[in-house]
Design a protein that fits this description.
The structure holds 2 protein chains of 2 kinds.
Chain A (H helix, E strand, L loop, with lengths): L3 E6 L3 H11 L5 E6 L2 H10 L4 E4 L8 H10 L8 E5 L4 H9 L4 E4 L4 H16 L1
Parallel strand pairs in A: 1-2, 1-3, 3-4, 4-5
Helix pairs in contact in A: 1-5, 2-3
Chain B lengths: L1 H31 L8 H57 L5 H16 L1 E10 L4 E8 L8 E2 L5 H8 L3 E2 L16 E7 L2 E11 L8 H42 L4
The chains are: A alpha/beta, B alpha+beta.
């Protein structure tokens, strides 16, 4: 799993740092950080991204709009997306997955669960 | 290692089955020849079978020991993984709390820790106004409008946290319901030395969380000390900055050339 770029989209610096901290255990992966959807889309135009982990509630552009943008772009439509959010209700999960996210992890996150999800998504996208 | 050992044992069992079949065949053969003790090739084969059976028992014993070791290692791995997760959370929380000297930013960090790391949905951060004898709400989340910002508590967990520095955790946790300021599910006094400077009160957890975990208690301990220091230092820094700016203003006025 080398030379892969993971984009963490979170407005909370604490959460951003915690997610990036957990992902650094995946050897050879590069972690990019964005503070909201707009920042994420900007970073995706300049860097090749292999997986996106995004929060839902963010200023400027929220996570659901970001997912819609990514799925609407032919270049990024098959990019694996993980939603990490405080919204833990079933309807929220269904809404996120219906929009095209591949996985939905409610906060507070367990770094091991996040790693497992990311690893399996990267494996399946590789295949 | 586990799967290799399993495959090896299965192979041994198959070999054993094959040899048993062979022994049964030889016994039948001997009976047909007139019975009696096995001789020649038959006897040698029986000896070999017994040797192999001993070897198999020995390997099965070893396999069980390895299996037991694997279970111990797996449990230990899980324990270390949990500890790693806890340390990562504590490191990030502590790092963020001390990353700024701006009081509002520290308050935001406390808020983020409570939402994202603890999973609290409704909570308040109170500042102890010692001289006036009340608690002032400095930040909150999920608290309905209309609840006064300044609260005086004569009894209950909030008062004990503010006056005696006692933590409080409801056990069992109450069913999620309306927020009542006097009835939090957890109270964490923020202390510097023995002095309580504030209290964090948690009223409700996120719907996907039904109890506090060991990590939450570690985070509460961290908040009790580190959040207190960070909040207090940033408040003092803010005041000193303000004083410095006032003094500079006076000095500028005094030293300004007269028109």
């Amino acid at each position: 799993m080398s030379a892969l770029t993971l984009l963490v989209v979170e407005d909370s610096p604490t959460m951003r740092q915690l997610i990036a901290f957990a992902l650094r255990r995946l050897q050879g992966c590069r972690i990019l950080e964005a503070v909201d959807g707009v920042d994420a889309l900007k970073k995706m135009t300049t860097d090749r991204v292999d997986l996106v982990i995004t929060d839902i509630n963010m200023p400027m552009m929220d996570g659901l709009k970001l997912v819609a943008h990514i799925r609407g772009n032919p270049r990024t439509k098959s990019l694996p997306i993980v939603i990490v959010t405080t919204e833990g209700a079933d309807e929220d999960r269904k809404r996120g997955l219906a929009l095209g996210a591949d996985a939905y992890i409610p906060k507070p996150i367990q770094p091991s669960d996040l790693l497992k999800t990311v690893t399996s998504l990267l494996e399946s996208s590789k295949n | 290692m586990f799967s290799r050992a399993r495959a090896f044992t299965e192979e041994l069992l198959r070999e054993n089955e094959r040899l048993r079949f062979r022994v049964a065949g030889l016994s039948r053969e001997m009976e047909q020849r007139g019975g009696g003790e096995a001789t020649g090739d038959g006897a040698a084969l029986l000896v070999r079978v017994r040797e192999l059976e001993r070897e198999r028992d020995d390997l099965l014993g070893r396999f069980r020991r390895v299996e037991e070791m694997n279970r111990t290692f797996a449990a230990r791995y899980e324990e270390i993984e949990t500890q790693n997760n806890q340390l990562a959370n504590l490191y990030v929380a502590s790092y963020q709390l001390h990353a700024t000297l701006n009081f509002a930013d520290v308050v935001d960090t406390v808020r983020e820790i409570l939402i994202n790391l603890v999973g609290a949905e409704a909570f308040a951060l109170f500042w102890v106004e010692e001289r006036a004898g009340y608690l002032r709400r400095e930040a909150s989340q999920g608290i309905p409008e209309g609840i006064p910002e300044e609260v005086r508590f004569k009894a209950g967990p909030l008062a004990r946290a503010a006056e005696q520095g006692e933590s409080y955790y409801a056990d069992p946790l109450p069913e999620p319901g309306a927020v009542e300021p006097a009835r939090p599910m957890a109270c964490i006094p923020l202390k510097i030395g023995g002095r309580v400077i504030g209290v964090i009160a948690i009223y409700r957890l996120l719907s996907q969380k039904d109890r506090f975990t060991p990590l939450d208690f570690e985070l509460f301990t961290l908040l009790a000390g580190h959040a207190a220091t960070a909040l207090f230092s940033s408040k003092i820094y803010q005041k000193s900055e303000q004083k410095l700016s006032n003094l500079q203003g006076f000095l500028d006025m005094l030293t300004a050339p007269s028109p």
